[in-house]
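Email to the structure team, subject: dCTP pyrophosphatase 1 model.

Hi all, the expression group asked for a predicted structure before they design truncation constructs. Nothing fancy, just the tokens so they can compare against earlier work. One-line instruction: predict dCTP pyrophosphatase 1, return tokens.
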Amino acid sequence: MENYLECGGKKVKDVSLQELRDRLAEFARVRGWDQYHSPRNLLLALVGEVGELSEIFQWKGEVEKGLPNWSHDDKEHLEEELSDVLLYLVQLAHVCGLDLGQAALTKILKNAQKYPVRNPTD
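Reply from the structure team: attached below.
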């Protein structure tokens, strides 16, 4: 059974990293792109996409949460660039043989130990 979330007043599918990984692997396989998907090449592509993402914010100054002053087109452009970054990151983890989801959860736990909740009176 598929999971759906409510997001901005519409139902969206809750997609797992595994599903993204599998779809990306199939996408690349049927196009014969696997030969180009070395860790180095994927990292360089990821860095390029992060640059494109940065350009969106470059001259905007501080931006309010939820992007209330952004046009639909600007938000759509942001979604596309964020998606590019995510997809390259998922592919990079996959070709390196890493479980990105588990690594992220482990990192959250490490950060919780490194930065414990402080009592306001401390």
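The first strand starts at residue 4 and ends at 7. The mean pLDDT is 92. Ping us if the truncation boundaries need rechecking.
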